[in-house]
Amino acid sequence: MRIILIEDERQLAQILKKGLEEAGYSVDTAYDGEEGLYMLENIPADAAVLDIMLPKMDGLTVLNRVRKKGVQTPVILLTAKDTISDKIKGLDAGADDYLAKPFDFGELLARIRSLLRRKAEVKEAVIRIADLEINTASHEVKRGNRIIPLSAREYVILEYLAYRKGNVISRTEITEHIYDEEFDLDSNVVDVYINYLRNKIDKGFRRKLIHTVRGAGYMLKEE
Questions:
Q1: Residue 7: which of 74, 65, 55 has the closest Cα?
Q2: pLDDT digits (tens, 9 = 90+) for 60-86
Q3: How many whole angstroms separate alpha carbon 183 and alpha carbon 79?
Q4: pLDDT of residue 181
Q5: Which pTM value belongs to this model?
Q6: Domains of the chain, first to last
Q7: CA–CA distance from 69 to each of 35, 60, 87 (Å)?
């Protein structure tokens, strides 16, 4: 999943970026409001973490502008302020959640997972497709009673397909949502990882869950 992080405190931004990447997210980072506005308008992200106090353009202005343009990326606001009026302003501007500094990084991860589930209309932390179970909190994957070990990249692709289960997802869309803006979109790495996943998820099972839609992309669904 791809996250846009907009935070002007560079040391904090680097700590958050590293933690998010270790949790399996692809992260694009902006250090001021104008750069953040550009990213939100042009990068197909799954969620954004947006600080309110930013140079060049404050976070509430950024949020107001992108919402007026129809950008629906879920946004968590970060701020040093923790008053009720500030929370109201943030939520009225179009924020989906609000987190006051200092905060626990584990809570930020939990709130991001909650936003992603809400966006995908998934209510529980465990996504189930037939006998496949994907725990989005622990990243544990099971099929039947067997735990399936996955690499970080394999898990990210499987989770993205799971959040969009039953829908055809193009190679380009998968690439855009799991890599940052510096990645080569013409790479065949998605096809390679889909093959890895098939060998782990479907091999040895009569019912196949990962499907290729010729000329369109991939789909995770019950056969």
A1: 55
A2: 999 999 999 999 999 999 987 767 777
A3: 31
A4: 58
A5: 0.78
A6: 2-119 (3.40.50.2300), 126-220 (1.10.10.10)
A7: 16, 14, 22
